[in-house]
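DM between two lab members

TW: hey, do you still have the HIT family protein entry open?
JB: yeah, one sec
JB: this one, 165 aa:
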Amino acid sequence: MEFYNQESNCVFCTSYALYKAQQKILYENEGAYAFLSYKPSNFGHSMIVVKPHIISLRELQSPAVNLFFNAIENTYYALKKIITESPQKIMNFYQNLLIDPPEQESVECAQLQIKKGVPLTSPKGFNWGMNYGYKAGQRVAHLHIHLFPRYNGLGIATAMRKHLN
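TW: and the structure you got?
JB:
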């Protein structure tokens, strides 16, 4: 599968090449790529994005469905390894957001993660989260899913609380 259907005004379509060049890709396969969120809700919050510019799950056809779910699982393992073996990489990412933020909210989110520091324990679990529609919190019209490491039992509803209104 090739990387097709890119939209020039889509942040996920245009960010892929930049993230690849900057070595910010946590995991990728032919149909999807993953990176640390530039508006982290918690330490290690990541996003998995389908490579073709599509908006809904309905548009995702086989084998892209398998590649997307494969990327979710493999991002989980890649992220768990980074958090366990070299969490400073994630902290460096947040510190760089203070220097070159894609948007102002990135600075606020990064400052909060830096203030909290590196978690003292490894994740106890992970949540996936997909916002589908603007009222559900989806701000980029490109199919993607969030991956949230959980350290102290904090659930997905709490992480997404800012999008409830």
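TW: got it. The beta strands are 25-28, 32-36, 46-50, 125-129, 144-150. Residues 11-163 form a domain with the HIT family, subunit A fold (CATH 3.30.428.10).
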